[in-house]
Each structure stands twice: as C-alpha cells, then as structure tokens.
Automatic annotation (TrEMBL):
Its main location: membrane. The keyword Ubl conjugation does not apply. It comes from Allotamlana fucoidanivorans. Residues 23-66, 86-130, 146-189 form the LysM domain. The lineage of its organism: Bacteria, Pseudomonadati, Bacteroidota, Flavobacteriia, Flavobacteriales. Residues 1-19 form the signal peptide. This is LysM peptidoglycan-binding domain-containing protein.
C-alpha cells in the first residue's frame, strides 16, 4: 500500500512538472538561496519547494531545479541593427501585416523605409524595400554577489544578518578573510537591494544558531515558540534553521549579546598624524614624602614596604618607555608628573595650583577617591581622564576606564562555552561561590552541579570533593567544567581528579572516551599557587578570561628589548600596562586630535599585552569592552583564537 502511495505521489509530481517549465542551476562558491532566487526572478520558497535539501545549506556544484514562468523571466533587451534590404513586389491579397509576419519585421519598419505607405494603402505591384535586421537579445545579468565596504562597529554577525546569510556563508564568500573585519575593508556579499536587506534593531536581541539546534532546543533556551521565531525572521519558515544563522528575538538580558569580537585592531601608526605638541598629565601615588632618601638601601626598603610606591614606580617605568619610543618617532610630547600622595587633599592642591585648560589627557590617579576628584573637577573643562587599573570609578562623561570589568571577563567565558551546543556542562563550586554557581546554572539549565563537601557535624565547608562526586557528574564524550573557587587547596583537589578522569576509548573493556576542558569565570591566586599542578591545568586545557595576554619572550619586541636594556629586568604586567596605555592615549590624540573622536574611528587597538575598545555608556563615560580568552597549552598560556 505504501509503495502505491509513493508511486502515485511520483506520478503527480511528474504531471505537475509537465505543466510547468523548469531550468537547472549549478551552485557556485558563495552563492545563497537569496542570490539565486533573485537571479531567476523567483522566491526562495519556490526553490525550497523543489529542492528541500537546500534547507540544510548549499554546496558548490549542487544542481538545483529552478521553476521558470513567463511572469518571472529575466528582463531581455532587444537591439536591431540594419544590415540591408530585400526587394519585394506586392502580390494580390498581401497586406502589411502578412508581409511583416513573412519577413519577421514590424509593420512600422516597412513603412519607415517605404514612406509612401504613410499616405497610401498597399497595392498589388508595389515594389517595397524590406529591411533586414541583425537581432541581438541582451539578457539582463544579475550578479550573485557585490562588493561591500565594512562600516564602523560592523562585525561578521551584523553583516551576515544584514544580507540574510550565515556567518559561515559570509566566510565562504570571502575565503581570504582571516580573523576579524576592519573598518573600510572591501568584502563580498549577496547582491541584494537596500530594500531587501535586514536592518539591525538595537531594541531587539540577536542570537546565533548553534550546530544541531532545532526549534525545540531554542524553545527551552529562549522561551520562544517556532511560530514567534518565524514571525520575527521572514524566510525562516521556508529555509528552516541553519547553524550560524542569526535570529532576531525580543530583547532579553538573559540572552548573551552577540559580540563584535571579530574586529581587527586598528594600527594607529598607519593614520595621518597631527604635528602639534600633545600635553599629558600623569598622576600617581608615589608618596615620596614617606621615602627615606638617606641611602640606596633605605630607598629599596621604602619601595618594598610601600605598595603604592612600588605600583607607581612599575607603572611609571612603562610610561617612560612609551615616551622614549614616541620621541624616537618624532612625536612632540610634554608630560607633567604629579605625586598625589594618595590623598584627596593633595589632589585638590595640584588641581588648584596648575592650569589644566590645555591638557589633552590625564592618566591616573590610581586609587578611586583621588581619581573621582580629578575626573569630577576636570569634567567642566572636558579634559579626558583615563583610569589605569581601577573598575570601581564613577564614569563621568570625561572618564575612560581602561581596565575591563569583572562582569565582562565572566561574560567572555560564558559566551565562549555557549558556542558549543553539544558538550556536557558541569559546574563545580565551594560554598563561597554559590551565587556564581547559581548564575551559571541559569545560563546552562542542563548542567550537572557538584558542590564541595561539608562537615556533617558543624555544617562548615571542608573544601574538597571525592573522585566519585565528579565521576558521577561527567558523561562520555566532551565535558566543559566550570570550577569556581578562591581556595588553592580546593582547586588542587578538583584539578587533580579531573585530570585523572580523562581517558580514551577502550573497546576491549567497553569504556567510552571522556574528555574534560576546564574553565573558570574569574582567575585568581587559587589557580596559581604551588599546590596546583600546571601539568594538570595543561592537560585540562584550562580556559579563563584575562584583561591582558602574556607577551612571548621568544618574539622580537622592541619595547621588551629596550626595557630590559634600560632597567636590567623584564617588564612586569604593571610596566607593560603603563607602556600600552600611554602609547594608546598618545597615538589616538595624534591620529584624531581628540580622545573622544577616536572611540568611533579606532574601535579596537592592541599593543604588547593590552587592547582597548572603548564604548560609551548612555549616560556617562567610556569603558573598555574587550578582553582576552586564554588557555594553558603545553605549560604555557596562549590566546584562544577568536
């Protein structure tokens, strides 16, 4: 019976095909359903109807069946070129119409070259000059792709959504597109008219479909029915879900925003420079009034004892290296350095005693109270004030917070894990990190949780788990494990167990492979102590977000080389931050003459260890919105490729 139904369906499809004209199309690299449908003047639905497998994606050289109808034929332009004439003697009963049909010309063409016919009817015996034309039909060719210039703050997902393709399809259109996009870069996109392009509406959220995600899984994750998704995304009903597709959804704080992390850093050295002198102010808590200058040993002791002095000197050493590098480049730069003594009263004295009207930017102070005093006072003069290390500062309109927030670090890790829709998630935490663990559980509802064991009598956290606790939470295949703790002993306990549970497939003993990748939302000293084995961290490919990457000592770096030569020591992170931040501030001023203007014109800059991508709060100043994702690899820490 089923066989008869199939035969009947086949016969009906054949009959239907006979009633309609069809063509075939061989898919070329980079073509999309939208560009093909436009070329043949049909809708994507028409193509999907005859080629249901196309919903899974297009591959080069695939043959598609294309419906062709008179209403949807491409525009054809006909040109006629006069080649000569044929002489014709009119016979009885011949008319202009019959002659036009016989010679495949228009009646008007015959009249044009036999002008007496405009005034007289055609008679038997008339000798006519019949024009002979060379007919050329020009079919309007619609290119599948066109070139597009990347605009400021446009990343891959925005452009993919705009032209109705997946990120993977955009990359296929641009095989030489390595890394991210750069403002002004020319790329290939589907040839769609402006009216056919999607517009990104910032009052909505946008979601990238992950591999193997269907409407059911999206309902669990987003709380949206299939019909609602199809209503918000025209064409989704015909195309179905595809990995890498960008979906428009109602705005939700629970949905991680798509990050334009693909943007390429702008090299400000390539920009046109202003030649005017730039005037910077640096404010640091040296607290020189507390230093005993009687001897070298007394000075060294003061540096060791005073954390503010130590931090200031390290940061200042990097600033001086930047100033030296800039002056070697021919930059005219004036730098005023003030000791805040970490006292608001001293800051007030500095502000009263000096003219800040013509200052291009202020870097510092380091501590929140002193920084807020400077920023609030200089706000009236619109002088940019850059915070070197803090995140708990007030974002006045003139404030640039150069250190990314802890929340951004957390989001970086969570968003990265969310790109893997197939692996099992495990959350391991101690009692001090219950809130973080609960946040992660809300992000990953299907995750397994393991909590540190408590003393049965006292109820106090004992900061350990057993092998059985973790083994029960893992599943065959790939496991992505969050470890949230500030306790070195607990970190050592968990990482050693996890490393021991990684295994390959053992068919003889019917054991499936188990792989583990370790994450934390906030790196801290617990993971860097002597109790934690770095070999275990490398085996677990330990991932975490960081405000800075580590420079490679094997790479040739002019800053590092110069710093070692001057200071007889390798630069630490504070020194590198001093160098990177000073270079960024000065180069932005040189390239755009204004730190505020540089935000849009240089969306992302990167130096030795730090990168800067400032965004403005709706009511407030600017914050650095970019961090690194790094991992342990063969006992070294390397950046995870975006």
């Amino acid at each position: 019976m089923n066989r008869l139904v199939l035969v009947l369906c086949f016969m009906m499809s054949v009959c239907s095909a006979k009633a309609q004209n069809f063509s075939t199309h061989q898919v070329k690299q980079g073509e999309t359903i939208e560009s093909i449908s436009k070329r043949y003047y049909v809708t994507p639905f028409d193509i999907y109807k005859l080629n249901p497998d196309a919903k899974k994606g297009l591959k080069p050289n695939t043959i598609l069946i294309i419906p062709i109808s008179a209403a949807n034929k491409p525009k054809v332009t006909v040109s006629k070129e006069l080649q000569g004439f044929k002489e014709h003697k009119t016979k009885k009963k011949e008319t202009l119409y019959s002659l036009a049909q016989a010679y495949n010309v228009e009646e008007e063409d015959i009249k044009k070259y036999n002008k007496f016919l405009y005034a007289n009817p055609l008679r038997k015996g008339d000798r006519l000059q019949i024009p002979v034309f060379k007919i050329t039909e020009v079919v309007e060719k619609v290119e599948a792709t066109k070139q597009y210039t990347v605009k400021a703050k446009e990343g891959k997902w925005r452009i993919a959504y705009k032209f109705g393709i997946t990120i993977e399809e955009l990359e296929a259109l641009n095989p030489d597109l390595e890394g991210g996009l750069k403002v002004g870069q020319i790329i290939n996109v589907p040839n769609l008219e402006a009216s056919e392009q999607n517009v990104v509406d910032d009052t909505y959220s946008y979601y990238k479909v992950l591999p193997k995600e269907g409407f059911y899984r999206l309902k669990l994750k987003l709380g949206l029915e299939q019909a609602e998704l199809e209503r918000l995304n025209p064409g989704l009903e015909e195309s179905g879900l595809k990995s890498g597709m960008i979906l428009k959804i109602p705005f939700s704080d629970a949905v991680s925003p798509l990050v334009e992390g693909e943007a390429k850093p702008v090299n400000l050295l390539d920009s046109l420079f202003t030649v005017t002198e730039k005037h910077l102010v640096l404010m640091l808590p040296f607290r020189a009034n507390r230093v005993d200058f009687d001897s070298i040993s007394d000075i060294e002791r003061s540096i060791r004892k005073d954390p503010y002095l130590n931090a200031s000197l390290e940061f200042y050493s990097g600033v001086l290296s930047a100033v030296d590098s800039l002056k070697k480049m021919g930059v005219s730069l004036k730098l005023d350095v003030y000791d805040t003594q970490n006292q608001v009263s001293e800051v007030s004295k500095i502000l009263r005693g000096h003219d800040f009207d013509n200052i291009d930017a202020v870097i510092g102070p380091l501590t929140p109270n002193c920084f807020d005093k400077v920023a609030s006072e200089l706000k009236l003069l619109n002088v940019p004030v850059v915070s070197p290390i803090g995140t708990n500062v007030k974002l006045y309109d003139n404030v640039f917070q150069s250190r990314p927030s802890d929340d951004l670090l957390k989001r970086k890790v969570v968003n990265f894990v969310k790109t893997d829709s197939t692996s099992h998630i495990v959350i391991i935490s101690d009692s001090n990190n219950t809130n973080v663990a609960n946040e992660l559980k809300r992000e990953f509802p299907r995750a397994s949780q393991v909590k540190s064991r408590k003393n049965k009598e006292t109820g106090k956290d004992e900061f350990f788990v057993t092998r059985g606790d973790i083994e029960a939470a893992l599943k065959p295949g790939k496991n992505l494990v969050f470890l949230e703790t500030q306790k070195e002993g607990f970190a050592s306990n968990v990482t050693s167990i996890l490393a021991s549970l990684i295994r390959g497939e053992d068919k003889e003993h019917q054991q499936e492979a188990i792989d583990v990748v370790l994450f934390t939302t906030k790196i801290n000293a617990a993971f860097e102590g002597d109790q934690v084995n770095n070999t275990h961290l490398s085996k677990l490919q330990f991932h975490f977000a960081s405000v800075a990457k580590e420079y490679n000592e094997n790479d040739t770096n002019s800053f590092v080389t110069s710093y070692i030569k001057t200071n007889n020591i390798s630069p630490n992170k504070r020194a590198v931050k001093g160098f990177d931040l000073t270079m960024d501030v000065v180069l932005r001023l040189l390239a755009f003459d204004d730190l505020y203007l540089s935000v849009n014109k240089a969306p992302l800059t990167e130096y030795v260890e730090n990168k800067f991508a400032y965004k403005k709060k709706l009511f407030g100043g600017y914050y650095n919105d970019t961090v690194y994702l790094v991992k342990y690899n063969d006992l070294t820490i390397v950046e995870v490729e975006p």
